[in-house]
Amino acid sequence: MRISRFYQIQKTLLQYGLDELIPAQWQPWYAKLLRGSLFWLRNRYPEHSIGARLRLALQSLGPVWIKFGQMLSTRRDLLPAALVDELAILQDKVAPFAGEEAQRLIEEALELTEISELFAHFELIPLASASIAQVHTAQLKQADGSLADVVIKVIRPGIRKQILADLALMDSLAVMAARFLPDGKRLRPREVVAEYRKTILDELDLQREAANAIQLRRNFAESDSLYIPFVYADHCRSNVMVMERIYGIPVSDIPALEAQGTNMELLAKRGVEVFFTQVFRDSFFHADMHPGNIFVSYDHPENPKYIGIDCGIVGTLNAEDKRYLAENFVAFFNRDYRKVAQLHLDSGWVPAHTKVEEFESAIRTVCEPIFQKPLAEISFGHVLLNLFNTARRFEMQVQPQLVLLQKTLLYIEGLGRQLYPQLDLWKTAKPFLENWVKQQVGLPAIWRQIKENLPFWAEKMPQMPELLHRYLEQGPRQQQALLLQMQQMQQQQQQSKQQIISAILAAACLISASIAFSISTGWLAATLGAAAVVFAIKASLA
Fold it and tell me: Which parts of the sequence belong to the ABC1 atypical kinase-like domain (predicted)?
């Protein structure tokens, strides 16, 4: 199955002529010879541009590849504009499946005889179609007799099988990469694929997405920066989700945003603030923030608010990773490269034998040129590439739990670059992160931890006398048992030592007896042989 899928992928890429994306000078002679021998896999779509062919190829390969194209569509600093414009179509204009099939899936999931039992109106033509699901508009009949404008998200039929096949192939390639690439073990490709597998399979469960949306909506309930639509949880199933219909301008529609007088600078800054709030305040962040999932409300363009949809992929960070990242960001902003290097060592992400001074110098070389510049002059893609090369030099391991965070940061950069190219990402984020770090250390943080632990302490306080008495009572017994174990270990060590000495003496006597016998000293050979037997018996009895 994996071999056939691998062939299908190669066949698709070649039939769409995507080998043209590789510069001729990068192709060794044997690669050119191999390509020429595959005469039956010629470019079948020469009338289309290279960007259109790339989009069509990714679309035909399925959701795993479409999502890759979605991420590339935000990188106008790395790819030509023509390619990015074509890939942007993948964000919400993937070829749909039949509306009648979607209606049947909804009726089956919600156990409806007819869709009109629950919805006053259902639009067969989808509002949007993406890689894993498509969305239809409808009017939900509510208990009070009113109608609510909603959208119904439906998972594509048969999509799980295709995703599992691609994931199996990716795992096989990861095994080969780990074994044969020079940096294979350090890059931990199998762990990265496993993390991606969990992410994309979670996205196939719309009940999980509904729960994510409810959580994000609660986190930003009082926010002026982000709005998450209401989810009708009673009508959600694993392959169907019903939620409030929102009305807004796609964040990628810059002319429309400018036409209504949107404060673009404030909008760009709020995008950065929303990201860091999700990561460091909530430890729960929307990890699929490509432009197709982000809208801007029509209300109050001078005080713009984002609207976020499609919460199928979210990321979480534990307290240790969150603190490590925050301290690294603050150290970067303050250009304290020594601390950055030391944090990497303390976290165990680089080997203990790494020289801090050399690592510090390498980080400074990469990061120093990017400060005090507007976002338009900074390419985080290039910075990440340079950091990757630095990491390879110092044997730094890839951290799979941070892959989603890195991807989301790239999305944020892409959005910021489109909205307000003059935005200084570092200047915007620095006060937020410094304030967060201050909240995590010092007397306020200690007092907050005490307040959080007070209920637990109050619950355990009545049990303290009994627990103390039990500890004092069992302490001497445990010490006595430990002392007995140590004595037994000493005896065993002494016996082992005696066995080794006796065995060595037995071997020495046996060798000496052989030598004596060879020089015709019979009485000496017999004596030494008897001694060897005695020592051997002693070794076996010890």
Answer: 90-343
CA distance 109 to 206: 12
Task: For tokens 């941070």, name the residue.
Answer: 402
Tokens of 469: 């008495």
Coil vs helix vs strand at 283: coil
* Phi, psi for 289 (deg, rounded to 5): -90, 50
Give the DSSP per-residue string, 102-149.
HHHHHHHHTT-SSGGGTEEEE-SS-SEE-SSEEEEEEEEEPTTS-EEE
- Structure confidence at residue 162 (pLDDT): 80
Positions at the binding site = 127-135, 153
pLDDT confidence bin for 209, thresholds 50/70/90:
very high
Assigned superfamily of 99-260 = Phosphorylase Kinase; domain 1 (3.30.200.20)
The separation between the first and the last C-alpha atoms of the chain, rounded to the nearest angstrom, is: 61
> Is residue 495 a contact partner of residue 528, using CB atoms and an 8 Å limit?
no
Q: Which is catalytic among the residues 166, 288, 310, 424?
A: 288
Domain ranges of the chain: 2-91, 99-260, 261-441, 485-541
* Residue 338 near residue 360, CB atoms below 8 Å: yes
Q: How far is CA 82 from CA 87, 271, 294, 306, in A?
A: 9, 26, 22, 27
Q: How far apart are CA 275 and CA 314, in angstroms?
A: 12
Q: 46-98: per-residue pLDDT in tens?
A: 778 888 888 888 888 877 778 777 766 766 655 677 887 888 777 666 778 89
Could you confirm whether 202 is annotated as catalytic?
no
User: How far apart are alpha carbons 197 and 183 in whole angstroms?
Assistant: 22
The three-class DSSP label of residue 289 is coil
Tell me the residue length of the chain: 542
Residue 258, classed as helix, strand or coil, is helix
Strands of 287-434, DSSP E: 294-297, 306-308, 314-316
